[in-house]
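Ops channel
N.P.: pipeline sanity check, posting one input/output pair.
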């Protein structure tokens, strides 16, 4: 069983930076694809970024050039560095994991609130 623990959310002003962390417990971290999703009020949950076991990354267009996802396999942790934050980045951010052989994200964290004021 996989457990995920997020940290790093908060209230910031537009243009500021935040780093979200997600700690992974329970299985072999290096076999899992890790992702960050977000859900804003009244909107569907969307994939923000994901990283493969080999550290190949994908970022959605709206965050490219601003957000960077990385992983530390020695610490079983992924980091989402968010720069140049905008009010439209305000959402609950969820860490997720899927085994490299899986087509869907199977495990989810509790979520951490990110609020960006104008």
């Amino acid at each position: 069983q996989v457990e995920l623990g997020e940290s790093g959310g908060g209230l910031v002003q537009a243009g500021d930076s935040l780093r979200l962390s997600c700690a992974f417990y329970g299985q072999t971290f290096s076999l899992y694809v890790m992702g960050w999703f977000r859900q804003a009020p009244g909107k569907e949950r969307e994939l923000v970024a994901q990283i493969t076991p080999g550290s190949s990354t994908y970022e959605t267009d709206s965050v490219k050039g601003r957000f960077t996802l990385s992983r530390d396999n020695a610490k079983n942790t992924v980091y989402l560095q968010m720069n140049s934050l905008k009010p439209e980045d305000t959402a609950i951010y969820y860490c997720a994991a899927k085994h490299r052989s899986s087509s869907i994200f199977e495990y989810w964290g509790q979520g951490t609130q990110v609020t960006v004021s104008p």
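N.P.: looks fine end to end. The first strand starts at residue 3 and ends at 7.
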